[in-house]
Amino acid sequence: GQYQLYNTDIDADTKFRQRVFVGGGVKLPTGAYNKSIVYGVVDPHFQPGTGSFDFLLSGTYIARYMGKLGWSNDVIYTLNTANSNDYKFANKFNFTSTFFYQIESGKQTRMGGKEWNFLPHAGTYIEYAGRDSQNGNEVAGTGGTTVFLTGGLDVYYNQFSVNFTYQHPTVENMDGDQPENQRRYFIGLGYSF
Question: Which of 22, 52, 104, 135 has its CA 20 to 30 A from that of 119?
């Protein structure tokens, strides 16, 4: 969840708006994390779950000029804990910076906007993780940094939203021998209250 910390006061002369959100969350230890195969144990990164409680801290900054052209920055820091196997995934830092353009359509709402809003967006996403640890010792071949180019479309209808995002890896600096990142596709649903 996120809480809106700041929102520019709006009047007839407001051309530049800013909003700041802060938030956090908890990831529960759902999903199996001790799966094995005929030839031995599956690497923790290929398990369906992590088996750990993890905590997320987030922040968002959004700026708009003339209500249409905008810039958004999202930061998420994940604090991971060890699971019952004493395996701890490294803490993770994610940063997204995108430019967007708002297109309005449909009937006027009681809040003054239109019922449909379309936000095509493009930008950069950075993912960083340190090394994992097992029994307090660093695990080789884990962690690193990847930079992705992103693009997509967010569609808003009143308080509901559908988000489509594509990420294409452009720079990778991974520790040791790890599978390369491939392109990613994301679809999300949201409700604002």
Answer: 22
Per-residue pLDDT 10s for the chain (193 aa) are: 999 999 988 776 778 999 999 999 999 998 888 877 766 667 788 788 899 999 999 999 999 998 799 999 999 999 999 999 999 999 999 999 999 999 988 787 665 667 889 999 999 999 999 999 999 999 999 999 999 999 999 999 988 999 999 999 999 999 988 888 999 999 999 998 7
